[in-house]
Amino acid sequence: MSTVSKPLLTRRDDLTARLARDGRYDIAIVGGGATGLGVALDAAARGFKVVLVESHDFAKGTSSRATKLVHGGVRYLAQGNIGLVREALHERSTLLENAPHLAQALAFVVPAYKWWELPFYGTGLKMYDVLAGKAGLGPTEFLSARETLALLPASRPQGLMGGIKYWDGQFNDARLALALARTAAERGALLVNYCRAADFIYEGAKLAGLVCEDALSGRQYRIQARCVVNATGVWVDELRQRDGAATSRDGRGPVKPMVAPSQGVHMVVDREFLGGETALMVPKTADGRVLFAVPWLGKVILGTTDTPRDDLAREPLPFKEEVDFILNESARYLRRAPLRSDVKSVWVGLRPLVKPQDDEGDNTKGLSREHTVLVSRSGLVTVTGGKWTTYRAMAEDVLATCMKRSLLESRAGGRTAHLKLVGAGETGMKAVSICKPPGPHSYGQEQSLLSALPGAGTALCPGLTEAMVRFAARHEYALSVEDVLARRSRLLFLDARLAGSLGPRVGEILLQETGQDPKIDAFGELARQYLLLPG
Ligand SMILES: Cc1cc2nc3c(=O)[nH]c(=O)nc-3n(C[C@H](O)[C@H](O)[C@H](O)COP(=O)(O)OP(=O)(O)OC[C@H]3O[C@@H](n4cnc5c(N)ncnc54)[C@H](O)[C@@H]3O)c2cc1C
Q1: Taking the model in full, what pTM does it have?
Q2: What angle do CA 361, 364, 369 make, to 5 degrees?
Q3: Given ligand 1 and candidates 89, 388, 493, which is best to mutate, with the most ligand atoms within 8 Å of its CB?
Q4: Which of 251, 329, 443, 522 is deepest in the core (most CB within 10 A)?
Q5: What are the backbone dihedrals phi and psi of residue 245, each rounded to the nearest 5 degrees, phi first?
């Protein structure tokens, strides 16, 4: 077994002291989701001096609310978007290789209840194999009804004609985000959560840095940077508009929004509703949508929806129609229909869908059609769209744009293609399946560090020990109960009632570790929201 390096400490005072001291950076990144963290890691791996600020917690936005699929996107294949699927399939295998404790292959079955579904979907999924080439995770296979039921024991047997099994990946999104942050920090990057980019600094008409504000102390810090990247997901237009207003010239109108948010709802039920460790995929529901039932951390995720929204709520609520859709469609494919009372947690994420932009001469489109990179007149680099699976390719694209615009000097890319993230073992080591309930194995190689911490033998609930809370505070930037129970442990997403009941105990341990208010009451309220179903 390889030795585990000592993890860095993430003491708040040390992070803010560095913010106050190390005033000049090559690159400052705003936003600590998949996109910003990917850029931070790539830039740090190329030897740039990097700072990243996140207004809330890392992955508090969309990046903790994915369907947890590391995928090429079967849907994009149906749309004929071959280049995009190929890129995502390549990134899928890169991620599985670099973080095997957090991202793994998963078998999916499309159950067929109509005669034409087997040849129709089978042919498409065989194409998926061809596109994956060497990056394939296993062959697509046609299954008899009996074989389908063996893999999906809780699927509806009446009328089942067979199924198609194909391979994709699944992951633990918020823990992957933390692994990116910590791996970037190991390469010298400074990453600070609860620190909002409040304003920009200009030298003449050129962007030269930002002012950020510590949400805990209210203190402001000035960060000078040659290059500023806006990776704030669905919130990118706020900063683009601020930049546009500061640098507007006569006759130039306000900056046009580039994001059209769309929300996706997920509901979590007990694993018995699916049975086994194979995901169920419905490529086309009665009203033409896609539905997944994914085994994840000992439960099953049902979802998702795609509903346009005008507002940008931090904790968006599901609509009644979305809940009805997921429950009704699940009932058509599962032996036992999940009821509202079976739902253990409901959570909603906002997709940053990119609107077509008029080319005003100062825009650079990203290589992939799914994400977009724009550079404003002042030099603000904005990146949004894409998906979790392609975060690494997006980061390479962002840095290529920064270099092309001479915001950074040229340095070779490809540094993250084989860069193992913290907790990853040696190549070929067998990790415990992400379908299984969480536990020390979720920490990969770092699980040995947990046993050295106080409270290693004290279980707060199955899969969560006192030592894990201490580890979260000492090494994973956690400050509040929500940070621990939503994104270090995923209990809020798996079982909101149980998570709510643990708030006070987790808060007590956090207070000992950080001396900060762990915000127990706010978490209690949030946990109640994750149990609320409209209608
Ligand atoms: C329902 C749903 C399901 C999905 N499923 C999948 C999937 O299965 N697989 C997949 O590959 N992709 C999936 N995606 C897509 C993927 O989750 C997103 O593409 C990705 O998480 C976007 O990351 P981001 O960093 O751009 O945005 P975010 O994660 O939202 O990060 C932006 C961050 O910026 C911060 N911020 C905002 N303003 C400021 C400021 N002024 N100062 C500092 N910080 C600021 C926010 O707090 C936030 O943390 C899904 C998306 C949705 C909505």
Answers
A1: 0.97
A2: 130
A3: 388
A4: 443
A5: -65, -35
